[in-house]
Design goal:
The complex is a heterodimer of chains A (102) and B (516). With 102 residues, chain A is mainly alpha-helical. Chain A has helices at residues 2-13, 15-48, 63-100, and strands at residues 56-58, 61-62. Chain A has one domain (2-100). Chain A is 82% helix and 5% strand. Chain A has a two-stranded antiparallel ribbon with strand order 1-2. Classes of the chains: A mainly alpha (102), B mainly alpha (516). Chains A and B meet through α1, α2, β2 and α3 of A and α5, α9, α10, α12 and α21 of B.
């Protein structure tokens, strides 16, 4: 038990574990900031820059309409990127570090 | 072309089709509850379906837990009457989901057991945190439940011709039955079936609508702007105070990551990886659903006409469109879908409220954390019954009242009372018990207090001349206030033991070592 505990403490203090935590949060915060900023600029634009949303891009689709649908697609893409990153980069590293505890 | 020759009122169009669909739904869901009841004995089975739900199933159930009848009928109606401005809401309801994924889902799954308070209380003092977090949770749940119950009563009385009071009692009994006997397992399958029906029904409705336009979105939008002006394609008419839009946006975005009935679903999957997958699936389905409601709204605007929609109170646009495109049979089907939609959401809320009372208050506060499986499940069942009865009474009490603002209020409390404490406890090492309690209390009371002084209540309901607080949604003030109070109070008196525990728990937070 006591040996296991030192192993855990060693792992927490290790550079590779700290790197994993730091890396995880930089990816998460970056993706969060992208979502937050695009949504807030959408709200800003429809409140203060209404005319910039009005031009037609194709047919009767205005920039505003495409921006709105684009936000939905962006939410899909960002969550997709995260899942891809987590499954292919984060999880293998998690498994590797977990094995060190054994 | 005269599109207005469709049904002008839905009242009295109750058909044997909608009634038999309704009965079929009742039978199937009660059958599931019977099946689930035999598998619901321990606390882990009652609150978390024994952690046996797969990521995909949980994604469907999350979508079913989240997409309310209000967003289906309400947003379609708003788009039909206002065009672009109705879209603002649906975007807001979706953009919170990526945040749930990036910030909350995995640490929540690794650190907690049954409720989100487990995570906040993990390295802090159990009792004060549990009491404060229950205050935030139960406030969110009660306001959300009232809005759903009143909406359900009105909708069912129109669709199936029952009196409002009957409708409330039926919904109250059904949701209590699922949770009481079938716990999380029955609730999950009711939500999965509902998500399937709602997505299928909405897809069919969009298909039938686009058929009228030779499957050309171009022609749908051309006709909409020809009939009602270019204004419907642009933001504008409705946004009188831009700060209102921002405030609502903040509430929706951060509130999603603080809804107790959504957060508790992450404990039904076996590990963090499945939790991640379930948010991806949920985001996909919910986004798809809002794109559908948008087309349904514009379709109703053109095919049914704004005058007919207004004459029916605004919320019936999707149902009028169903009747126009698919006749009585299809209307009956969509009505049953709306009923299933209501049941899945209120069942999720009831279960979440019951778990707060039994897991957070009874076991952690009253029993001082001494886990007693049999006793806790018993208390959870009694709490379910109590919430069922209270919901029925509140539904009857608020009959005919305008309760639409309560959804915004619930999101504001979730965003300011629950979310800051949760994210600070996951991310910020110096967070203390006092800081967490102060943050939760500030966010929750500010939300409720400010909305009472806002135009929604102070002017529209209490009849005063001018609002003391200018915004319709308080989140713009209450969210940053809760974050700042949480940080400042924590820094005033650091807690070394909590900081040490923060380090110790890291293997569990990031690697899932020792998580339940």
């Amino acid at each position: 038990m006591s040996i296991h505990k030192t192993k855990a403490e060693q792992l927490i203090a290790s550079a590779e574990f700290k790197q994993l935590v730091r890396h995880r949060w930089s990816v998460c915060i970056l993706l969060t900031v992208i979502m937050f900023c695009t949504y807030m600029s959408f709200l800003y634009a429809i409140a203060y820059q209404k005319e910039s949303m009005a031009p037609y891009v194709t047919g009767k689709f205005t920039i505003g309409l495409l921006y709105a649908v684009g936000l939905i697609i962006l939410a899909w893409v960002l969550t997709g990127i995260y899942v891809y990153w987590a499954n292919n980069s984060y999880n293998p590293e998690v498994e590797r570090l977990k094995n060190k505890l054994k | 072309m005269n599109f207005l020759q469709t049904t002008t009122s839905l009242q009295g169009t109750v058909s044997w089709i909608s009634i038999s669909m309704f009965l079929l739904l009742v039978c199937i869901t009660l059958g599931i509850t019977y099946w689930a009841a035999r598998r619901t004995k321990t606390t882990s089975e009652f609150y978390a379906a024994g952690r046996s739900i797969s990521g995909f199933q949980n994604g469907m159930a999350l979508a079913g837990d989240y997409m309310s009848a209000a967003s289906f009928l309400g947003i379609a109606g708003m788009v039909a009457l206002k065009g672009f401005d109705g879209l603002i809401y649906s975007i807001g309801f979706l953009v919170g989901w990526p945040l749930v994924m990036f910030l909350i889902a995995e640490p929540l799954r690794n650190l907690g057991k049954f409720t989100f308070s487990d995570v906040v209380a993990f390295r802090l003092s159990q009792r004060p945190i549990r009491i404060a977090a229950s205050f935030g949770s139960l406030s969110t749940i009660i306001f959300y439940l009232i809005a759903q119950m009143v909406g359900a009563g009105e909708l069912i009385s129109i669709l199936f011709g029952f009196p409002y009071e009957w409708a409330i009692v039926i919904v109250g009994i059904m949701m209590s039955a699922y949770v009481l006997f079938g716990g999380m397992l029955a609730t999950t399958w009711v939500q999965i079936i509902k998500a399937f029906l709602l997505l299928g029904g909405a897809t069919l409705l969009v298909f039938l609508t686009l058929q009228q336009f030779n499957f050309s979105l171009y022609s749908l939008f051309e006709q909409a702007s020809a009939l009602y002006g270019e204004g419907v394609l642009n933001p504008g008419q409705d946004i009188t105070n831009p700060w209102d839009t921002m405030s609502l946006g903040i509430a929706l975005m951060f509130g999603t990551a603080g809804l107790p009935h959504i957060l508790m679903r992450f404990y039904t999957v076996p590990d963090a990886r499945e939790a991640r997958k379930s948010v991806f699936v949920a985001t996909g389905f919910i986004g798809y659903f809002y794109i559908l409601t948008f087309i349904i709204g514009f379709g109703a605007m053109v095919l049914v006409g704004q005058d007919t929609i207004k004459a029916n109170g605004g919320n019936m646009a999707a149902l009028l469109l169903a009747s126009y495109t698919g006749g009585q049979a299809f209307l009956g089907f969509i009505a049953a879908v709306a009923f299933a939609t209501i049941l899945a959401v209120v069942a999720g809320l009831t279960l979440s409220g019951a778990s707060t009372i039994s897991h957070d208050i009874y076991t952690s506060v009253l029993q001082k954390g001494k886990s007693n499986e049999v006793g806790e499940v018993k208390v959870a069942r009694m709490a379910t019954l109590a919430i069922g009865i209270i919901s029925i009474l509140l539904g009857l009490l608020f009959k005919g009242q305008n309760v639409a603002f309560m959804v915004g209020l619930a999101f504001s409390i979730a965003a300011s009372g629950n979310f800051p404490a949760l994210i600070l406890s996951i991310l910020w090492k110096p967070f203390t018990t006092r800081g967490a309690v102060a943050s939760i209390v500030t966010g929750t009371t500010l939300s409720i207090g400010l909305i009472a002084l806002s135009p929604t209540i102070w002017v529209n309901i209490l009849g005063h001349e001018e609002a003391l607080f200018p915004l319709k949604n308080p989140a713009l003030i209450s969210f940053p206030a809760a974050v700042i109070v949480g940080i400042v109070v924590s820094l005033m008196k650091p807690d070394k033991a909590a900081q040490q525990k923060f380090e110790d728990e890291k293997l569990r937070t990031y690697l899932g070592v020792g998580s339940e």
